[in-house]
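Sample entry (214 residues):
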Amino acid sequence: MTRPLLLGHRGARASRNIPENSLASFELSLQHGCDGFEFDVRLSADGQAVICHDARFGGISIATATAESLALPMLEDVLRQFAGRAFLDVELKVVGLEQQTVAALRQLPPQKGYVVSSFLPEVLGTVRALGPEIPLGLLCDSRDQLRGWRETLAQWVIPHFKLADEELISSVHAAGKRIMVWTVNHAGRMREFAEWSVDAIISDDTEMMARSLR
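Predicted structure, serialized as tokens:
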């Protein structure tokens, strides 16, 4: 059995002392023993790629604020610090980030592997047109979204763990694609997915995941 990639969800999200989607949280996930991490990218009013999961930060709409006023990490910050030593799952939350994401990844290509993921098929289509070499991941949190996985342009299928079972994992592999599951926070489920040969697991509890599967 090949061990799956172990990825922190927004870094080491279970740690309450460090904010999620921060450079410190990403660093902590690696210290815990993860291979890399997932993080979320949004578009500020001045067209910058900022790292944040929610559409609002500190009560402010990210889409109507400048990157400087938000004081969030930016995509380039993550790539400069981690492209040489972590697998990166770059989740694009909105339309409009595609061109600068492709440019940033070409300028600072991750050396340990990466995927650009999104719930939005149109985002993946644009990234594919701009950067055919970039690995893509289709995120799915419903059976309706998952139903089209065979037709997706993406090399990675990334369902919520409740949608995934051994049969799906085998089918994805038979189609020549890879599969990553999120967000798995129980050691027993982690080991089960590993036994089913899932390619990557995303977890909030990076310390427990590394302890259970390394």
